[in-house]
Amino acid sequence: MLVAVVGVGLVGSEFVNQLLSIPAESSPFRLISLSSSSRTVLFEPANAILSPEKWKTILSTSNEKPDYETLTRKLSGFINPATEVAIVDNTSSDEIASLYPQWLKAGINVITPNKKAYSGDLGLYEQIVRASQESGARFLNESTVGAGLPVISTLKELVATGDKVKKIEGVFSGTMSYIFNEFSTGSPDGPSFSSVVSVAREKGYTEPHPADDLNGFDVARKLTILSRAIGSSSLPSLQSFASVKTTSLIPPALEGIPTGDEFLKRLPEFDEEFDKMRKDASKEGKVLRFVGVVDVVKGEVKAGLEKYSTSHPFATSLGGSDNIIMFHTERYSPRPLIIQGAGAGAAVTAMGVLGDLLKLV
Amino acid sequence: MLVAVVGVGLVGSEFVNQLLSIPAESSPFRLISLSSSSRTVLFEPANAILSPEKWKTILSTSNEKPDYETLTRKLSGFINPATEVAIVDNTSSDEIASLYPQWLKAGINVITPNKKAYSGDLGLYEQIVRASQESGARFLNESTVGAGLPVISTLKELVATGDKVKKIEGVFSGTMSYIFNEFSTGSPDGPSFSSVVSVAREKGYTEPHPADDLNGFDVARKLTILSRAIGSSSLPSLQSFASVKTTSLIPPALEGIPTGDEFLKRLPEFDEEFDKMRKDASKEGKVLRFVGVVDVVKGEVKAGLEKYSTSHPFATSLGGSDNIIMFHTERYSPRPLIIQGAGAGAAVTAMGVLGDLLKLV
């Protein structure tokens, strides 16, 4: 299988390294193209990139600008009954996501941790599904939820084998997991909310602007992706992540602040509010967790702060920036199927992407 | 894909029901053969069995005796570039397991929850791997560990994408899980061991002879299956499940008692011993759990009773007959990847089998 990689940031670089660490003689893949936002290279299959040491230099010394029309045309030209092609989109770009239908129509498989196409407008998603059905090319997006954890494949298997999903509930954001594992342990006291967010940012757990995590949209996007994998037409979240009932953690007075630095400087003004929520939860023997829920029975999908008993797995079992996902189904009842582990980070995200690629061969 | 089913007991029947509940017009499968220990039917692809209501009658009114040589020959005859064939072995038979190399050589895919071939002598397993490599036919055995939980597929993906497995640790037996979740909760007192085992047997959680669970061999077999999926040559368990350091829970004086009834009548003589272990664990703030460990770093593989702190997930998070499996790897470190849920039962086991079949198409 010929592979073209778009996006060579943290996840993209790690992905290329993992891909090229499969010994060439046993690898079913040939890496023939790399694109960053400013440069691109594309080789004939016989001249595929093999060296984990040299790919960065090969790309950085190219003078070609990315041109996705040319890429699509040339890649299609390589497809024949003995040769499949896959594009791996490691960007988080809306623009690249909008190209998936065109790639799939051309018979090119699409693998990505990019949530945009799968959580955005239903129109684009339907085009993707239709294009894949028409050409037989496949799209896989395991690492859009839970990074390398087997979340989407498990959900698809439950559905395909005839199980009925009743509810999916989980901590889906590594950032939110870290923040609340530190902030709310069941005790009425602890570090201030703003200090926890600051440390999370220093450790690289948040986006440069923490409001991009605290708005809850990352969780809402994941819930739309799961809703579409369930396929139940009663879920409002099918439409787009904007249809998820999302409760932002950004204090209204801090909405629209342009920089992360300024945001963090003002966040302490709201520490008392967050502290009161922690104290209230503690009084009930509970902790605060930012969770996502897809309730198929009630037709309700929401992302927001909830309280859980200190004996609940969301309180006892989580640490670091772990994700935890509980599938309540007809067969996994009364006790759910649970998947837990690191839900963010380049190594595990790239692993999920490579795992998808391996499913194609 | 043409499907032949061998074994129509609890799991086998549920599997056939799940398979036939996929609407025929969208199903990629055609069920053309069923075999029990005493009867068999085999149809031409055009006359495949479609009715979830009638398959039992079709089989029970057949006068044909199972004949696996004929079955193999006829199924091979159906294979062509457009038609694949799979045999689903839902028995726990050593004899059927010994046929896998022959089936794979003939180009027939093999799917099974039967642990025998994958946990028995290395010789048979190597024949299976070789036969699959030669013909390209595939073998999948997800439901040999954790029933429908995605345990083996997750492990294979970790390995295939270059992660290094350091240790796998878990509660792998639904029966042992139930017994110790009931028997040892952290408190020094509780129901007697023999009464818990009796109730478990009444609920159908144990084999007819509870010693077949208490010997720990079921867990040892699963550890050998996982060891082979890891493929590290340092693991003694690769050789066979008999090479796993297994600590049986059968009191030596009760070894070899022929019937389950007699065994249960005498088990109360040993309640005091088990009670003492529970009290000792409780004094240390711990619970007893029957676990399996594959320690790749130490090259040690063992099944036996261990003590875990009452705050450990094996104590806090388990219930019913749940399995829980922790993967400690280079990437999932310091916190493991965890999979948890019902690890026994016909519905979830059959689901794992059907999930494997879906991976083939």
UniProtKB/TrEMBL annotation, chains A, B:
It catalyses: L-homoserine + NADP(+) = L-aspartate 4-semialdehyde + NADPH + H(+). Residues 150-358 form the Homoserine dehydrogenase catalytic domain. NADPH binds at T91, K115. L-homoserine binds at E207. Its EC number is 1.1.1.3. It comes from the Eukaryota. One of its GO terms (biological process) is methionine biosynthetic process. Keywords: Amino-acid biosynthesis, Methionine biosynthesis, NADP, Oxidoreductase, Threonine biosynthesis. Residues 7-140 form the Aspartate/homoserine dehydrogenase NAD-binding domain. GO terms for molecular function: homoserine dehydrogenase activity; NADP binding. InterPro entries: Asp/hSer_DH_NAD-bd, Bifunc_Aspkin/hSer_DH, HDH_cat, HDH_short, NAD(P)-bd_dom_sf. Its cofactor is a metal cation. The active site is at K222 (proton donor). The keyword Transmembrane does not apply. Pathway: Amino-acid biosynthesis; L-methionine biosynthesis via de novo pathway; L-homoserine from L-aspartate: step 3/3; Amino-acid biosynthesis; L-threonine biosynthesis; L-threonine from L-aspartate: step 3/5. The keyword Hydrolase does not apply. NADP(+) binds at G7, V8, G9, L10, V11, G12. PANTHER family: HOMOSERINE DEHYDROGENASE, PTHR43070. Belongs to the homoserine dehydrogenase family. Catalyzes the conversion of L-aspartate-beta-semialdehyde (L-Asa) to L-homoserine (L-Hse), the third step in the biosynthesis of amino acids that derive from aspartate (the aspartate family of amino acids), including methioinine and threonine, the latter of which is a precursor to isoleucine; production of homoserine leads to a branch-point in the pathway as it can either be O-phosphorylated for processing to threonine, or O-acylated for processing to methionine. This is Homoserine dehydrogenase. It comes from Lentinula detonsa.
